[in-house]
Amino acid sequence: MSIETAPRVLVIIPTYDEAENIAPITAGLQAALPEAHLLVVDDGSPDGTGDIVEAIAAKDPRVHLLRRSGKGGLGTAYVAGFRWGLERGYDLLVEMDADGSHPADRLPAMIDAVVSADPRDDVMLAIGSRWTAGGAVVDWPRSREVLSRGGNAYARVMLGLDVRDVTAGFRVYRADAIARMDLGTIDSKGYCFQIDMTLRVHDLGGAVVEVPITFRDREHGVSKMSRGIVAEAMLRVTQWGLARRARRLLGRGPR
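RESULT FIELD:
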């Protein structure tokens, strides 16, 4: 990708009950990347998260709010954000959590990994990676680290992806790559959405670059992780992996 002028960047943050976090996250993002725009996709948070964002947006044209009527899941929130960004002509679409776990100061390096890449490499996605060399997690119990590392290893093997942190939720996509995807076929609602998206970039022939980050556990609010989300990811990875292997055997391509 080669952009002669500064790319138009849209950071998409899905929220549900993040009233304690959204203002400091917004401030941190703007300090790290002043020219970027922020779209908060709020799923009807009963704690007033949407109202806080609306008040910020009234004073700052870089901040936007997309309200949804109910809790529709991470995947559908990002798809809604992608569509919003594509309609408005942004060059780069960023995924970022609202809980403070993703370091905004790593965004310039992630964006540079996409924008400054050799066009022959066709880099479509930069991932803020916990598990690549130089990456780390802070304040996680050992059991959660083992679960994350194990899930990523399983996805790599089953899907044939050369990505260390395929479940990572801190990402920079080229908007033209997202535009080439059939967003209407994405029905992954939990964290397997990230695996699904990585697979779609791979199947477009795009390269993925991992930029090391230090991931910190949230200080405020409640984690959205659940056994159901983990089970959905494991089941779908197994289904996708077996289907892809069967299609390769039949000579019908990766999907």
